[in-house]
Write a structure and sequence with these properties.
With about 850 residues, this protein is an alpha+beta fold. Strand 10 and strand 11 (about 670-680) form a beta hairpin.
């Protein structure tokens, strides 16, 4: 080859290689994209969230009206009319006229109307009114009930011989003060309407359907236990759909399914018209951190039923308060619930799987912005999680080799630079999570927790902006300070994104190994990074400056929308719950961590792209400025005050207690009156004192808890018991009048048995419809037998029992046998405490005047109670 030909060949090679090499050029040069373009980039994602995610989250179907009767569809207008009548009854406390008479009669009347219109050639409808008596042990306490009511409806397809029944359950009782329109009137009227539709349709079903309207759920799930223990139909129930509420309006969330039986998720996927569910909700609820419980626990743990636990979750601010009213529940919300329930009931009533519900295995499931539903088995999910993480790591490695090739450096050099970038991305992940948590910690330290409670937008500046700064800062500093002239700025930026992908991959592998099905969040976030990475590698866009960012931005829309939707869901659900999380937990840590994780998974890749701008530091300064301004607003203005009248209330639980301690000889050693407070949120009494409520003289119950059995006060429920060391006592001079003259405990008989070391006591206990019984034998005495639940004797004293009655208030006869080795029964052997709640009474004039001193934003849940301590 001649010199001329050789020169020409070299020129052609140079031109061809220039297609890549021209992008290397000045290796570290940063493009001159205006800073405001990067700012607009961040605002675009914020706008996308507001324009797409929020509307889809609150989207509800159009409600059907009476004009649609006869079409076989759920009629929300008719259900809403029932809800109006239901809510008009008012509070439905167990033992009250509202619950035991008016509500029971309302439901029976509606069922009678439905039965009159049943298509008898297709269905038989039976209505049974159960009055249940029983007890069970749960959570360290015994729960005993008598005369609580259930209304049981059996819809049997004509000619059906199936012994496998579908059970649909909800409750009609309420907490004190609440008209219970949402919890759970919404669900009861939905069940009524589903019965109407089912019994007037001309469809054939295989299995009978049981609809259980239970009258005592708010008292530790007693009526569902009464059904399972005593009702003749209970043994035939195989699958349960449990309906409840922790909020009002909006749509209902499937937050538990199973246990096991992945086919249940498949039926939900195919038959719920408006899916709203996620494995993450199930795993969070099953940790026990959510301060609520449902009948599903009784059905699954005590009867081994499988099924669905579904509840309303929006606007939990009104939950268990007087503001749980009819007028805040849109008709469309009832339609949403009705469509889903009707679809599920119809499908399950024909499901062959009801014959065998012993399947093992769990499922991964989630809805995507309410538009469609994704599910697969947990085993498949585990494989998928490992596979995606592995593919992500491999493709990142291939990309690094490609960068080395086009940059004319060795792969070892690129890998060594990447190790530093990976370390920085680990730091970025930690900062993205830690900075919001630090803000939460500092606010709590200065008594400013829950500033987002009534103004959720504050979370953006308090938690999201610091998280974005934490995610972007390490790569920003690195890209500004590094002196690497061998790689283009575009390649170094891409390596930063690769570093984030590796961090997520390692995290996903670790969490997957631990066994959390919620790993799917990481997996699908990685999927939508792997896809553009593969496309950029195949198309060589990776080698063409910043061309690779176009594909990435487009495909990142999907994980951004889903992840922001998911974590927004949990913030909406959990924020109201922070108002009843108790004083010992800093709720801001939970909300800040959720906001941070949502930011990391939604914007972890995208926020790094601000480094395309030469002055990307301005974006970080702007984010810090937003955070600083928000911190000032939240800490120094009324906008950051947590409570608002009617909409974002402070729950104030307290009892007007008179406690009397009797000694062994019958003399009274203590007769004291006061208010027993159980503050529900982190701020405790501080806002009330600032508002002028006179709590002077309040003392902690901790000292009484160390001196007296069960602190010497009448706890109305298990939540009071769990938080008893944080209780507050405010003594008052005027004696609190007891609304009854009956002595709560009468000794009927004391007999020393033939063995000489055992004594038998027989007591008559005159309870109110909500009462407690405490029993603690002395150290040298042992209870060997009693007429209460025998299984509870294996627990460690003191024993405590919650007692409830509905329509039967007859006294309880209790027999206790106590053994003492020396046979000396002329001295005390046992303490007995009887606490009675008078929930249907407003208290005396002094208590009523005291209640008027509370601010408008405080919702009071209070009533008189008494406590009598005896020594026998």
């Amino acid at each position: 080859m001649g010199d001329k030909d050789q020169l020409l060949s070299e020129s052609v090679d140079s031109i061809e290689s220039g297609k890549v090499k021209s992008y290397v050029g000045k290796k570290s040069k940063i493009p001159k994209i205006p800073w405001y373009m990067a700012g607009g980039f961040v605002l675009f994602w914020a706008s996308l969230f507001l324009a797409v995610v929020v509307p889809l989250f609150y989207r509800l179907p159009q409600a059907n009206t009476l004009e649609d009767v006869g079409k076989g569809v759920f009629i929300a207008e008719r259900a809403q009319e029932n809800l109006y009548e239901f809510a008009k009854i008012g509070t439905k406390l167990v033992g009250s006229d509202g619950n035991e008479n008016k509500t029971v009669q309302f439901i029976l009347n509606e069922l009678a109307k439905i039965k009159a219109n049943v298509l008898e050639e297709y269905f038989e409808m039976e209505i049974d009114h159960q009055v249940a008596y029983g007890s069970y042990v749960r959570g360290g306490a015994q729960y005993q009930y008598q005369g609580v009511q259930n209304i049981v409806v059996k819809v049997t397809p004509k000619g059906s011989t199936s012994q496998n029944y579908l059970l649909v359950n909800s409750h009609f009782d309420s907490k004190p003060t609440s008209p219970s329109a949402a919890d759970a009137g919404h669900m009861c009227v939905t069940m009524l309407e589903v019965i109407r539709i089912i019994t007037t349709c001309r469809e054939k079903f295989t299995h009978p359907i049981i609809f259980l309207f239970n009258g005592s759920e708010e008292n530790s799930l007693q009526a569902s236990d009464g059904f399972l223990s005593l009702h003749k139909l209970a043994p035939f129930c195989r699958v349960v759909i449990n309906l409840d509420a922790a909020g009002s309006g909006c749509k209902e969330l499937l937050f538990q399914t199973g246990p096991n039986n992945t086919w249940l998720v498949k039926y939900y996927k195919e038959n719920a018209k408006h899916p709203f569910a996620t494995t993450m909700a199930e795993e969070i609820f099953q940790t026990g951190i959510v301060p609520s419980d449902t009948d599903f626990v009784i059905f699954s743990e005590y009867a081994n039923l499988v099924g669905y636990d579904i509840g309303l979750v929006c606007n939990g601010f009104v939950y268990h308060t007087k503001y749980d009213r009819y007028d805040i529940i849109p008709r469309e919300s009832i339609q949403n619930t009705g469509d889903n329930l009707l679809g599920l009931v119809k499908a399950l009533a024909n499901a062959p799987e009801l014959a065998d519900t012993t399947e093992t295995g769990k499922a991964v499931f989630f809805d995507v912005l309410g538009l469609f539903f994704v599910s697969y088995s947990a085993d498949s999910g585990k494989t998928l999680n490992y596979a995606v993480a592995g593919v992500a790591i491999i493709l990142v490695y291939v990309s690094l080799l490609r960068i080395a090739e086009v940059s004319s450096v060795t792969s070892a050099q690129v890998l060594s630079w990447f190790v530093l970038i990976l370390v920085l991305q680990v730091v970025a992940f930690v900062l993205g999570l830690a900075l919001p948590v630090v803000v939460a910690y500092m606010f709590d330290k200065y008594g400013l927790s829950m500033t987002y409670f009534s103004t959720p937008a504050l979370s953006l500046g308090l938690y999201v902006c610091p998280s974005l700064v934490g995610l972007a800062l390490p790569s920003f500093v690195y890209l500004k300070l590094q002196k690497n002239e061998k790689l283009t700025h575009a390649h170094q930026l891409q390596m930063a994104l690769h570093g984030h992908a590796i961090v997520l991959s390692i995290l996903g592998i670790a969490i997957n190994y631990y066994g959390l099905r919620s790993t799917y969040i990481i997996t699908w976030t990685l999927v939508f990074y792997v896809i553009p990475l593969a496309l950029n590698l195949l198309s060589t866009l990776q080698d063409r400056g910043y061309s690779w960012t176009g594909v990435l931005k487009i495909i990142q829309v999907v994980p951004f929308l889903y992840n922001s939707y998911l974590f927004y869901t949990f913030i909406v659900i959990l924020t109201p719950m922070m108002g009843r999380f108790g004083q010992t937990t800093n709720p801001d840590l939970i909300i800040s961590a959720l906001a941070a994780l949502g930011t990391i998974f939604s914007m972890g890749f995208l926020i790094l792209l601000i480094n395309i701008s030469r002055r990307s530091g301005i974006i970080l300064v702007a984010l810090l400025a937003v955070s600083a301004a928000t911190i000032y607003i939240a800490s120094s203005t009324d906008i950051g005050f947590p409570y608002r009248p009617r909409t974002n209330v402070e729950r104030v639980y307290y009892l007007h207690v008179r406690r009397i301690f009797y000694e062994y000889d019958g003399t009274v050693s203590k007769d004291e009156s006061g208010y027993l407070f159980n503050f529900q949120d982190r701020r405790g009494s501080a806002p009330l004192i600032e508002a002028g409520v006179d709590l002077t003289g309040s003392v902690s119950m901790a000292s009484d808890c160390s001196k007296y059995m069960m602190c010497g006060v009448p706890y109305p429920d298990s939540r009071y018991v769990k938080s008893r060391l944080n209780g507050t006592w405010l003594a008052r001079e005027k004696v609190i009048p007891i609304p009854t003259t009956e002595e709560p405990l009468v000794l009927l008989n004391k007999t020393i048995l033939d063995d000489g070391i055992t004594v038998r006591f027989v007591f008559e206990i005159r309870f109110t419809d909500h009462s407690t019984l405490y029993i603690q034998p002395y150290v040298d005495a042992t209870i060997t037998k009693w007429s209460l639940d025998e299984s509870y004797l294996s627990s460690t004293p003191p024993y405590y029992m919650f007692f409830t009655y509905g329509v039967d208030g007859s006294p309880l006869i209790v027999t206790i046998e106590i053994q003492k080795s020396n046979g000396d029964f002329e001295v005390p052997v046992c303490e007995i405490g009887v606490g009675r709640q008078f929930m249907h009474t407003s208290g005396d004039i002094t208590a009523q005047e005291f209640a008027k001193t509370f601010p408008e934003y405080a919702v009071l849940i209070e009533w008189p109670a008494d406590y009598h301590r005896y020594i026998v």
